[in-house]
Write a structure and sequence with these properties.
The complex is a heterodimer of chains A (280) and B (317).
Chain A lengths: L4 H37 L3 H4 L13 H8 L2 H31 L6 H12 L7 H10 L6 H24 L4 H9 L4 H30 L2 H6 L7 H6 L9 H21 L1 H8 L6
Helix pairs in contact in A: 1-12, 3-12, 4-7, 4-9, 5-7, 7-9, 8-9, 9-12, 9-13
Chain B lengths: L9 H9 L2 H41 L1 E2 L9 E2 L3 H8 L3 H31 L5 H13 L2 H12 L6 H8 L7 H4 L1 H26 L3 H9 L4 H29 L3 H7 L8 H11 L3 H31 L5
Antiparallel strand pairs in B: 1-2
Classes of the chains: A mainly alpha (280), B mainly alpha (317).
Chain lengths: 280, 317
Amino acid sequence: MNGSSTTTRSSRSARGALTTLVTWVLVLLFFFPVFWMVLNGFKPESLASSVDPTFIFKPVTEGYQLAMDRGMAGYLQNSLTAAVIATIISVVLAIPAAYALSIRRVNNVENSLSFFISTRFMPLAAIVLPLFMILKTVGLLDNIYMLAVVYGAMNLPVTVWMMRSFFLEVPFEIIEAARVDGAGMFREIVRIVLPLVLPGVAAAALISFIFAWNEYFLALLLTSSSARTTPPFLGSFVDGRGQFLAVLSAAATIAALPVIIAGWAAQKQLVRGLSMGAIK
Amino acid sequence: MTATTTTPQPAELEDVKAATATDKRRVQKKELWRNRSLLLPAVIFLILLTQIPFLTTIGFSLTKWNLLYPNDRAFAGFDNYTSALTSGDLWPSIRATVLITAFSVTLAVLFGLLFAVLLDRQFRGRALARTLMITPFLIMPAAASLIWKYSMFDTNIGMINWVLQSLHLPVVAWSTEHPMATVVIVLTWQFTPFMMLILLAGLQGQDKGILEAAQVDGAGAWRTFTWITLPHLRMYVEIGVLLGSVIILQVFDPIAILTKGTGGTKTLAYLLYERAFIGLDVGQAAAYGVVTVILTIIVATIALKSVFKVFMAGGSR
């Protein structure tokens, strides 16, 4: 640092402070709809639906009570069932598949991987009609377990890809040592490999849960009443009459909360999951 | 792929030595089959739930089949496709799908890049800023669309119009006056964090030494960014664009909630939904489903060629 740098340094730090300020303004602006949703959920209906926005008020839980009165607990229960079962299915099927595609030898790894990625990219619109017809014929329409199975298939490719990227990081020496010790394949997976990739399994499970919890299209078409999940329930607000912004905001907050918390907790793994393991 | 250059285990060593070449091959084959069986459950499950339904959709699309006339069901050849082309529903729908995807992905990448660059700096509360930024992507899409529809876009109680009025600007009925923009705004808002996360990973994976060298050589911040950082980010942009496009091509939630397909926003997924579940025309709807797949394949192969290399890099042992 030479003598003349005092001015440049202070101007640089001023510019840094300005950039930070701009960053925060933009971030808060971007986040505002979420903040506003949470705020509106705690307003009495008359305030939430008023023309001039209110920022300071006495919070009430009226909106949340009204959402529960509309039977939201049941929809949440269904969403939870579908998301948890879908996650279990995709993880249980993905572990051996990812293991085979990374540590064991199978021919045509590339082909198998393309198969998985192509099913992930298969638009739901292309498969929903036969699913609907078949489920209708066998009486499994509006069945939450069936929806969970379909979600399991929807999430499986992502889970396989993602877990594979974690499996590939297991040092081969460890597996080799286990094999020399005469560990069978099952023991090799359960005892040696799984503990090492547990963070990966958790991250894949999380991504699977998020996708299933948020899914709207299939839920709308494959369920009607007893198996209805939260997204189509929320969607039904569109046909609402009168003032309902407080209820809607409360319901949306409850619906979004599990995934928001999960996503915040697992920020580091999120990129990896979203990019199907391509980015670490 | 060194995975199973199975180093012979000591106990087996004698056998291996003794074994003839054919025996060895048989052992390898058995091993290969055992490995393949690990893959099998997942593959069968996906064939049952995605491949077979897709083939069935193709079958449906070649059938004359309206649920209103269940007995009048017959092979129709390409009638559903020709009538899709002539009825004037298909092209606007492809247009809507492609435009919505192109605008949303482009804007999300640009905003994502902006936020990634801003959040790559060290500053107070960076972790919190990052946490707040990813939230729109985590919010249930149906909830996000509803919140925007009522608390942001609404002509009476929406915040955007309140701001416009405060500035003495005319109120805008977003979903009827600018349906396309409405959908694109919400999708951009939801996907900006997605792009930001991917690009941020790219920025953080940059070789700091090269950046310092550029600085020493007197390259300004802007030149360093355009000549070094952007080319480095290319791969990440490609991944973001591919994944974002494939997801948004299927977009349904914001259409169903914000515009109901009016004003040139009837995407293929929404058109199929209307045809099948309101019009009850299974054959016609199936044809739209097949078109959606074709469109996805076109977009994906354009983007995928380069990106697949990235997926495979660091891929196989």
